[in-house]
Design goal:
mainly alpha, 7 helices, rod-shaped
Length: about 160
């Protein structure tokens, strides 16, 4: 099939010349790959440029570029995590939960000894004052236990990353 490259060409004729369907030619026109008012030569040049872009890894639709950006971001995140681990700035959630649990047990045990310690340190302290101190400390202990027991470390980690 001979075509006059200096004149406009129909979508069907161009598709037959390059081996694609008329709807594919129409889509290329809609996507701006082929110029609207181009000659057959203009369309051939644009079509060949598109094929070269695809062959060289340049993706005109942006899908390949988006995938590469995602990959690069994931790789950067992995390097950042590795560096944080090496610097001792990162600990697994399970380890944090274990540390908080041990700390809670230690805090509760110390708070439970306070009544005797206050009695030894200040035997002349009026009972009402001692009870007020113990009430405040017990409230703090209970709040510590409540907060650490209900702490959602995964959500807390997500919030600090945001």
């Amino acid at each position: 099939m001979l075509i006059d490259t200096d004149k406009p060409i129909s979508q069907t004729a161009f598709g037959l010349a390059v081996g694609i369907s008329q709807p594919a030619v129409s889509a290329m026109l809609s996507d701006g790959i082929l110029p609207d008012a181009g000659t057959a030569c203009d369309w051939l040049l644009a079509y060949c440029a598109r094929l070269r872009d695809i062959a060289s890894g340049r993706d005109m639709t942006g899908e390949l570029t988006a995938a590469r950006i995602r990959k690069t971001t994931e790789e950067a995140d992995a390097v950042a995590l590795s560096n944080a681990i090496k610097r001792g700035e990162y600990a697994p959630i399970a380890a944090l939960e274990d540390v908080l649990s041990l700390a809670s047990v230690a805090v509760v045990a110390r708070f439970e000894q306070l009544d005797g310690l206050i009695a030894q340190a200040a035997p002349d302290l009026p009972d009402a004052a001692r009870q007020a101190v113990l009430h405040t400390l017990n409230g703090a202990r209970n709040e510590w236990v409540r907060m650490t027991a209900s702490l959602d470390l995964v959500s807390a980690a997500d919030e600090t990353d945001a």
